[in-house]
Design brief:
It comes from Mortierella hygrophila. This is MAU2 chromatid cohesion factor homolog. By secondary structure, the protein is mostly helical. It has helices at 2-12, 20-37, 41-56, 64-80, 84-101, 104-120, 124-141, 144-160, 164-174, 232-249, 252-268, 274-277, 293-300, 346-362, 368-387, 396-400, 402-422, 426-442, 446-463, 467-478, 488-506, 513-527, 533-546, 550-567, 570-586, 592-605, 609-625, 629-651, 656-662; strands at 280-285, 326-329, 337-342. It has a 3-stranded antiparallel beta sheet with strand order 1-3-2. Helix 8 (144-160) packs parallel to helix 10 and helix 23 packs antiparallel against helix 24 (550-567). The radius of gyration is 29 Å and the shape is elongated.
Length: 670
């Protein structure tokens, strides 16, 4: 407030020594403080308008730099107030002026802003076209890192639109230039995930998991290879984008390798100052500064730093990556220029890395605590955003990001619910799902995520043996009228609800093979437009369970066994072994005992009690049929421990608090 009072005095004073340019600068700074540090957006816009009128009256090019900065701030205000057409008009004027003067750094900046405006107007084609134009200019000028930034944003837009092939296209273009080209040719059969970082801070004011050191600021990077990206921060965002796409395509080994690289890259990009802590980093330009008087005057101006709300990550797990907010000029050294880009804050990148680490570890129940540890630590870090940065003490910038953090927290809770389901801890799954439901409402994403929550509720019911209620909840999910591009979360949830329903009709209690096959056909048609590796594996399991031919059923289950192995999905692998062993037993094949024994051991090791019980009973029957009573008795003893756990879960009344409010069919819960 003291700063605002001083700036108000500056713009109000009448003095011969106060030039028109000085007044324009003061009003610009006043508008910046009002916009960045308060919620007086209207007042900020008023000061910008007055400053633009002043700069228009100044003859010559002395006010050019201030004028471009005013256009930049005016665009941010229009974006904040969702007046996108006005933002486009302002950017058209500003871009033309920057191009006329040959100020490529400003042209890059306006390209980022223009692409964001197009995207927020749901004009994906216009957004990607703008990105390609910016990348072409950067290539022409030799600004290689800027070209990489444009490509990364293009990949992120493609991901947010569920255009996976297009995102992979950009990844393949960028990977050779990121110093990690081995990712595309990675063939090693083992990979490890780094240990989760701690979530402690020195002063409690920052939500970042670790307190960064304070080394001396490095100079401009030495361009040893002009075709290699020099910015470590850009490599971090590239790796985040890469991991999202690899998770989706089921290339788990590449994902784990990239995740380890991401953990290492984060250690190398710890913020050195407040700007970097808030996500502002430098990208150096190849072109040198104009040494003309006008160029020196422009270089002496102190520019505005970017200060606008980050683009929301996604509305699905993989949607948490963000676009750069803007590029803004900074004071420049004599022989090297750069722009500053605000992307995600250091804390946001760390939180997103926790989520990615949890997702990558989730399917592997041989180490059930790894995924849980990542997600729990990530939830603690995100939760600190809502406790330390409360509404009264937090800055406007933090409050503008509350929805981003609440969306991320809800996503982490949903994945943590999945972990508890995989561990057969239904009480913990219930509690976590209720928290996710609360945060879905807090971040205003309930309509978008209620289908995913309904699916998870149905899965809890199905694992608890309450199949009537499970189908009721699956039917809620199936009633969703979704679009695969506008609502990928709902589309995938509906497909998984179909597969789960088909598996119920393939079981003994509701055996209806005709209904299951109809469901299978519909699920296959949906999966063809989605290309999810985990869904493809689940479809092979459903195909094997419903197929009347013994040989085709075995072929599908062998395929699911192969796919689950490449996905490192231990739960799908256990189910595949169980069903495959059943089919070999029906065919009186000598391999049945070997497959069933392997399936029982695998299910027991990976906390899959239901599959362990089912496989164990089949194995015991096999021993009895082959007159091996001692082995049958031993197997019965091994089955008992798992059977007690399953019976306990079946008797529990899980999710009663949620059911009391949202039960689709009250008669089915009584």
């Amino acid at each position: 407030m003291c700063a605002i009072k001083c700036l108000v005095a500056c713009v109000s004073i009448e003095s011969p020594s106060m030039t028109q340019l000085d007044k324009a600068k003061s009003r610009l700074r006043l508008a910046q403080v009002l916009f960045e540090e308060t919620e007086s957006v209207d007042r900020s816009e008023e000061e910008v308008t007055k400053a633009i009128i002043i700069t228009d009256s100044i003859q010559g090019s002395s006010a050019l730099e201030i004028q471009l900065r005013l256009y930049e701030l005016q665009t941010q205000i229009y974006i904040e107030t969702k007046r996108f057409r006005l933002a486009k008009n302002t950017l058209r004027i500003a871009s033309a002026e920057a191009a006329k003067q040959g100020l490529h750094n400003w042209t890059y900046q306006f390209c980022f802003l223009k692409a964001r405006v197009h995207f927020m107007m749901e004009d994906a084609a216009g957004s990607l076209t703008t990105m390609n134009q910016g990348a072409a200019l950067a290539e022409q000028q030799g600004d290689f890192d800027i070209k990489m930034a444009f490509w990364i944003v293009s990949g992120q837009y493609s991901l947010l639109l569920s255009k996976w092939d297009q995102a992979m296209f950009y990844l393949q273009k960028m990977t050779p230039h990121m110093g990690i080209a081995e990712l595309l040719d990675f063939t090693t059969t083992t990979a490890t995930i780094a240990t989760p970082p701690t979530s402690t801070t020195d002063d409690g004011s920052s939500p970042a998991p670790v307190t960064p050191p304070s080394p001396a600021a490095p100079g401009p990077p030495q361009e040893l290879d002009p075709q290699q990206c020099q910015s470590q921060q850009l490599k971090v965002f590239f790796l985040i984008l890469y991991i999202f796409c690899m998770i989706r395509s089921g290339q788990v080994e590449k994902t784990l390798f990239a995740l380890t690289s991401l953990h290492g890259a984060l250690d190398g990009t710890r913020p050195r100052d407040t700007d970097e802590l808030q996500g502002v980093f430098r990208v150096f330009l190849k072109n040198r500064i104009d040494d003309s008087p006008q160029g020196r005057q422009q270089a002496s101006q102190r520019p505005q730093q970017a200060s606008q709300q980050p683009q929301q990550a996604s509305q699905q797990p993989q949607q948490a990556s963000q676009q750069p907010q803007q590029a803004s000029q900074k004071p420049q050294p004599a022989s090297q220029s750069y722009i500053c880009i605000r992307w995600m804050t250091f804390s946001q990148v760390y939180c997103l890395t926790y989520l990615l680490s949890g997702i990558c570890s989730k399917a592997d129940m041989t180490q059930p605590m790894k995924s849980q540890q990542f997600l729990v630590e990530g939830i603690k870090v995100v939760d600190r955003e809502f406790t330390v940065n409360d509404y009264a003490s937090s800055s406007v910038y933090v409050r503008r990001n509350q929805r981003w953090f609440s969306l991320l927290l809800m996503t982490m809770l949903l994945h943590l619910t999945d972990v508890f389901l995989l561990k057969f801890e239904l009480d913990s799954a219930q509690e976590t799902l209720l928290k996710a439901t609360y945060w879905a409402q807090v971040c205003g994403a309930w309509d978008l995520f209620k289908w995913r929550i309904s699916l998870t509720t149905g899965m809890i019911m199905q694992l608890g043996g309450r199949l009537d209620e499970a189908m009721d909840w699956y039917n809620i999910c199936l009633s969703h009228s979704e679009n695969p591009h506008q609502d990928p979360e709902g589309y995938e949830a509906k497909t998984l609800a179909l597969i789960s329903t088909g598996l119920i009709f393939s079981g003994e209690r509701y055996y209806n093979p005709q209904r299951a096959r109809v469901i299978l056909v519909e699920a296959k048609a949906r999966q063809a437009t989605m290309q999810s590796a985990n869904v493809r594996c689940a479809l092979h399991i459903l195909d094997g369970a419903t197929n009347e031919g013994l040989i085709p059923a075995r072929q599908h289950l062998h395929e699911s066994l192969k796919t689950s192995g490449s996905l490192m999905n231990t739960q799908l692998r256990s189910i595949s072994l169980m069903l495959l062993g059943n089919f070999y037993k029906e065919g009186h094949d000598a391999q049945a005992e070997k497959i069933l024994a392997a399936g029982f051991a695998h299910a027991a090791k990976t906390c899959n009690q239901i599959v362990a019980v089912s496989t164990g009973f089949t194995l015991k029957d096999l021993y009895l049929q082959t007159s091996r009573g001692i082995k049958a008795s031993e197997q019965a003893q091994r089955n008992k421990a798992f059977l007690d756990e399953v019976d306990k879960a079946f008797q529990a009344r899980v999710l009663d608090p949620l059911l009391n409010d949202h039960t689709p069919n009250s008669s089915s819960t009584t």
